[in-house]
Amino acid sequence: GSLVFFDDALHHVLKVTRILESDRRSVMLVGVGGSGKKSIAKVAAAVVGVPLLHSTKGPTYGVSNFLDDLGAGFKRSGIKGEAVCFLMSDADVCNSVFLDFVNQYLCTGRVSDLFQKEDVDSIVSELRPAFKDGNPGAVDAEGDILEFFWDRVSQRFHFCFCFSPSDGSLARWSRQFPGLLSACTIDWFHPWPADALRSLAARFLPGADGTVADLVGQIHATMMRLSSEYFEETGRQVHITPKSYLSFVGSISTLYAAKLAALRETRDSLSLGLDKMAAAKDQVDKMKVELEEKQVVLDRSKREIATLIAEIDESTAEVTVERRNVQSIVSRVTKKAKEIFQTKLEAERDLEAAKPALDAALEALNSITPKDINSLKALRNPPDVIKRIMDCVLILRHMRVGRASWQEVKGLMVLEASYPEALKMMNDMGFLQNLLTFPKEEINDETVELLKPYFRADDFNYESAKKASGNVAGLCNWAEAMCKYHVVAREVEPKILRLKESEKELNKAKKEQQNAEEEKDKVETALRALEQKLEEANGDMDRVKKDADTTEMKLNNAMTLIESLGGEGARWQELKREIDDKERDLLGDCLLACTFTSYLGPIGVSHRESYLSATKQLCKEIHVHTSETFDPVGMLADGADVLRWLEASLPADEFSVQNGALFASSFQTTRIPYVIDPQGQCVRWIQKMHGDAVSIPTSSPSFMDTLESAIARGVPIIVQNVDSNFGTSLDCILDRAQSPDGTADRYIKIGDRELEAAPGFQAILTTRLANPSISPENFAKCTVIDFTVTGNGLEEQFLGFLISRDEADLDRRRQELDEDVRRCEAKVKQLENDLLMRLSSHQGDILEDTHLIGVLADTKETTMRVAAQLREASITKRTIAETCEKYRHCARIASLLYFALCDFARQSHMYETSLEQFLAWLDESIETAATASSIAGRAANVLSELKRTVYLSAQYGMFEKDKDAWRLLMAVVCSDADRSRDVDHSGAGDSAILRSIIRMGKQHVKHKRKTVQWLSDEQWTNVLYLQQSGLFDNLLGGHQGLTGGSESKWKAWMNLEEPELTAPPIGATTASGATRTAGGSSGAHDARAGPKPTLHQMALVRALRPDRSRSAARVYVEQVLGSEFVASRAADLSKLVLSAGAGGGPAF
Description:
Distance between the termini: 66 Å
Shape: elongated
Largest sheet: 5 strands, parallel
């Protein structure tokens, strides 16, 4: 079976079994979804032989249906007296009213008004006999019988609840319905222990040793720990349940078997191809020598054939003479054989005359049984005729008899019998058998003469003997028949002698014939040998000539093959070595890939790689090999799949491609993809991939009709806005059964109907929520994929958008070139694979297949031509890419600004901005940006306009108190992006400095004794924070520090009315250890050069003059973005109305 019973599972089974065997008890199994609660309940019910009832859910399942199911169970327990277990899970509680009835039963042992009047009458009628048997003498009133019914129900009806504590429903139900706790035995299902994980892995992973099974369990435990850490860091709950582990183990087994078979098939093909190439190279020189040798053999064969033809002519004449001689002898022998045959027929006719009597004697003899003989032997003095018959038998068998003497018996003179000798003869166990096989040819005339006096007696006949001793009388007939046969045979004997003489003459003639035929055969054999030799010589000559032609052809083919595939051998050798390495690393890579698909789908880009590295480290510690540069996409999809995804507008960044692989691999399992898609890019990608895909939210009234239509037509259905509550309408596809081969079953049950899913049907769940709350049960049923847009992916999208709008011709050339490159790469790979496939799959000697050699040569030529085109296209692509890169900085800042807006939306949901809206702002910036003489100038103009558009459009909907923060955040983002373009951008970025400023006053600080007494406690704490955060190395010491020789300068700077406009006395820490003034210049600040405020200076202002922080931020924003980003601007209402588009007007 597919169940693995570890210790904890057995304990649960025993506990539930005891409860089901007891009266008036119910059980509640509490654990996260996928813990095995239902399996335990089913096993326990099967052990005790209790039927397990379960409600049949459906879109229309309501209270009345539940009461019908409950009533049916009550009737089985109350009327039939059966023990019944009613199974209920969280998903079965479609309506909390269900639990109201359940609670009523648990608390009181009955459910009021459950049955209609006719049901009550039926119960009373059926239960009355049992009531009378159990209560003799009692009045069978309806109320008493109903009381008896409910008493039996409460004894034998058990509830088995399978609830999860994760979503808060159980806690709420426990408060609302106290019977769930007070009337049930609670059995908690905790996370599976290590031994359970190990035993399950060992059971479902064929060939896995204890080390690998331990490793699989450790990976699961590590992912559980990391998911908890991920929740603490990001607030996203990633549920890892035992069902996740089952899926993990199953995917390992499936993926490993498929990959191992593919690797070995490829390696076998490579080996065959290399062997055939090596064989062709080895045969070239050898075939040249063979060709010369075969020409010499060909000339010698021609001379030998001419000699053989002369010898054959001479032997043919000799054979003709011998044939005539044999024919004469055969005629003479045939005539003699006819004469002998006629004589033989006459003798057989004479012998045939004695055959009836002989047959009758044998028949009579067969009628005698050992019992008859024993009866005869038991007689002390048998009848005299029997004694004489036995004397006849003795005489025929040439055995001893007494001296002949006459005696009178009943008036007749007869010979006196020798019965004692007869008794001795009859005592022989083989007596009757010896008579049956008696050699009648050995009878002579003397024997017959001795028997005649016996035969002449009047009573010596069958009838007299029959009267005297029953079946023994047959010996009488037998003796007479033997004598008669001898008389006939004596008359036939001269004929037999003549026959024997004739046969001797015939044998002599046949011997003569045989000798003549042997001589003839000898001559003919010699002739045939010569003819055979001639034929063989001709065949040898033809074969040598054919071999010579074949060798010449194979030599030419070998030269062509070596020339055509000269460069492939080294590549195939290297590929074979890579396959050997891959097979060595395959188990570890499959573990990593299945960890990726089973656990890392909902993990964001910031943690996914580190979690995969943690798994890789576990493999390393257990000494399970993995690839040095493991790529999960390469394990789950091939290059053609990725190219097809990219052509359908999947973002080209690594995270998005990984999500594409996760999405595609989910259809190889029974888990449905659940896509977290805040920006909607996954839905757009799926719709381009599957043009016939149907998209509909679950809230649509026509959802079920659309779902059934998609199932019947075999088209994908995208279920949108599936948030925290999946709803019962999705249960039919979430609970889709599994076929024996591990894939999703083609039948989908909707209510009480089963629909056959046509090929191509796929269900995809999506949500626009960035962090949906999914229950563990639904988490285990889905492959959750975080499709949130990444920085790199969005940057590439924005770059493509900029190029398509601003450089349409260049973008068209780039797209055409990308398509050509993808097509060429795919064609090269296809041709190379086809080349190897043709070479390895060919049966026999490839050098003999001229057609295939030509096809291989053409294929290789095409491959080289396509590869050359690919190199040319790559050069052109590089040139176009260099031009497109001039827009890179603009795309990067656009991406950073979008994510800054997303982060800023945490201040208020009102500030949320969709990707579509941001693209509209980018499009507006392209339209309104000034033209320029160069691409770089145009990109700079678009960037300036984009900053302005984003700033103004975003701040229109912000509260006044948040506008300064938005300006500062936007300036920091742009400053970091500009700084990343510098060759030397050492030191902390402005984003890191800003985070330090925000944490000032909130972060824990290691306090020291205050050495600068003129600072307030708050200022001193802030100074310690700046010193300990690493922004300033010598803020307290050194000649520029607060406690050094610059104390007066610090006091003067702090007392300035606008300290943010003047450089402070100390420089900031850089990554190289050098310092630069907080005002921006290296070394000491030159006041005459004018202030260059940075975030370092803003940090000092925030620490020592917090009253000037807002002003310092404005100065920084003005320096980075310009004065227009600081000055207040009135909203342009006409522009706002236009920007709202057709979706509706702006809200004020």
